[in-house]
Amino acid sequence: MSVALPGGRSARPARRLGSPYTQAPGVLDDRTEAAEERHMMFKRNVLDRVVAGEVSLAFRRWLRPEAKAGGTLRTSVGVIEFGAVDVVAEEDITDEDARKAGFPDRSELLGSLRPGADRRIYRIALHHAGSDPREGLRTAKDLTEREIALDAERLALIDSRSKHGPWTEAVLTLIAGRPAVPARELAESIDRDLVRFKADVRRLKEYGLTESLETGYRLSPRGELVLARLRVDGTRPSE
């Protein structure tokens, strides 16, 4: 989330080095799963501890609940499922709560939360719920011609419904040529709004065509096969 500065400029808030999870930026307009993901980001070491059963709580300071009981979050270690999501008073948070959230004590936990007198603290129970169901799609290396053709047809359908024109092959090509490049740089290189660019990439990820990295993206094995097909064809199967 940006902070307004005099003169119309904005600055990003400094990251708290002691926090085991990162504070996510602003929320998307449509309040979809993407919005929830942006508010429930975790560092990889914390995700590993969730898988190991060592971390079972998270705390966030929000204006409104940004996660819901029974909701899920797809991460680099698989699916995280949320249990109870409750408002909690600061004085009721214990050292034991802090340890379950990956902090040594409550002081460290409270210091990691974003400030804001108008925000309430939420206590989120969570656990690892298994592998990401998209993993099988991403790692597929022996697709049949028919499967590749179907993926290409799906992309053609996405393009046909796009309000800003065909984009799927261009974004796949961009990611193939610039893996692990920050999303902001990729978006700027094609004059695309960052939030909308990330939404585009998420759509490709739903089909198992891209993978998110610590920074930026790369094509999955499936994505490489589909892009190769598009390049050979020169046109979409449905065109």
Features:
Arc Repressor Mutant, subunit A; elongated; 239 residues; disordered N terminus; 16% strand; disordered C terminus; 10 helices; alpha+beta; 8 strands; 2 domains; Archaeosine Trna-guanine Transglycosylase, Chain: A, domain 4
Chain-wise SSE layout:
Blueprint: E1 3-4, E2 10-11, H1 33-39, H2 44-51, E3 57-62, E4 72-75, E5 78-87, H3 95-100, H4 106-112, E6 120-128, H5 135-139, H6 145-161, H7 168-177, H8 183-189, H9 194-206, E7 210-212, E8 217-219, H10 221-233
Antiparallel strand pairs: 1-2, 3-6, 4-5, 5-6, 7-8
Helix pairs in contact: 6-10, 7-10
Summed up, what is this model?
This protein is α+β, with helices and mostly antiparallel strands. It contains 10 helices and 8 strands. The strands form 3 sheets. Strands 3-6-5-4 form a 4-stranded antiparallel β-sheet. Strands 1-2 form a two-stranded antiparallel sheet. A two-stranded antiparallel ribbon has the order 7-8.
